[in-house]
Amino acid sequence: MTTRTPTLSGDVLAAIGGTPLIHLRRASDLTGCTILGKAEFLNPGLSVKDRAALSIVTDAERRGSIRPGGTIVEGTAGNTGIGLALVASVRGYRTVIVIPETQSAEKKETLRLAGARLVEVPAVPFSNPDNYVHVARRLAERLAATEPAGAFFANQFDNVANRQAHVDTTGPELFAATEGRIDGFVCAAGTGGTLAGTAQALRALKPGITVALADPEGSALHAYYTTGTLKAEGSSITEGIGQGRVTANLEGFRPDHSFRIPDTEALDIVFGLMREEGLSLGGSSGINVAGAIRLARVLGHSHTIATILCDGAARYASKLFNPAFLTERGLPVPAWLTETAGDLP
Ligand code: PMP
Is 8's pLDDT higher than 70? Predict the structure, then answer.
């Protein structure tokens, strides 16, 4: 075992980023490439979204858009809210999170424990004025007028301080950790901040690098980047990824390749990584690793490809790892998931 020297680094926000790159054995063996996953589930809020949350709040402070004791309002599938609540606690703000009620109970509970006030709304498309993002924006406007210290709408989809977090940190970290040997980068897009920001940094550091989108079913981006028209088909049980429009964070970005990944392919990878490589991950990580395998097949063997391991399995115990939930959706249930101590001889 190698030791990493612990450093005295200040408050918990100093522990955001600088995550290790994990060699993914099965994906690498399968393709003859070196496939690496950036362990974003090791951030203090346990997801990649801590980076965006810290960047959005720091940017708002710099612009004077948020006052001490003010309220941060956001519409989020969960992880951004957890990151924002964490940053808000350290920096002296309050957090109100508007979340679609379909999101996992675990994420909602984590948000409450992190100190956020939750507003649950029905899951409706962005075109509907009752979509969680629009509800959050209107709530921020109301609170800006009524809260003594005002309110700030974090607006992760269209606030490019989100993407900038990855231009400044994720991209350069991937380049440095691979000693410049990175040939390809692939991930899914929710806001698009991780994909577009990391791609921007890597393309500047390593001209000629190949960047790909891994898109779940139900997202309109794969059709957009392959045919020019936003068109969604199918659906996915993954959370936090897939997009029906070109967000401000995706503006000016184009992937070199785009892959549409079905849930069956992603879940097989999530379950395999858990049982064979000790990695306990959420669904979007499965989409991402599936994308890395597809990109490896395009580039050919002996390339180095990195992707993002966005968050951990614990956030989805009642869904991805629940046999009844999987069966209800016609998805295969791995045998080990139903094994109990009672099965032991
Ligand atoms: N995976 C998970 C689990 C997420 O919560 C998110 C953010 N919504 C993403 C991936 C996508 O990240 P981004 O918003 O940077 O596109």
Answer: no
Q: How far is the C-alpha of 64 from the C-alpha of 55, rounded, in Å?
A: 14
231 given a catalytic annotation: no
Distance in Å, CA 200 to ligand 1 centroid: 17
Statement: residue 4 has pLDDT above 70: no
Q: Is 283 touching ligand 1 by the criterion CB < 6 Å?
A: no
> Torsions phi, psi of 136, nearest 5?
-65, -40
Please indicate whether residue 49, judged by its CB atom, sits closer than 6 Å to ligand 1: yes
72 alpha carbon – ligand 1 mean position (Å) = 19
Closest CA to 255 of 231, 287, 223, 301: 223
43 DSSP assignment: S
Q: Which amino acid is at 199?
A: A
Residues 178, 183, 189, 191, CA torsion sign? positive
Strand partners, 37: 22, 307
ipTM score above 0.95? yes
Q: What does pTM read for this prediction?
A: 0.96
CB 72 within 8 A of CB 34: no
Catalytic one of 38, 49, 107, 206: 49
| pLDDT range class, residue 6, cuts 50, 70, 90 | low
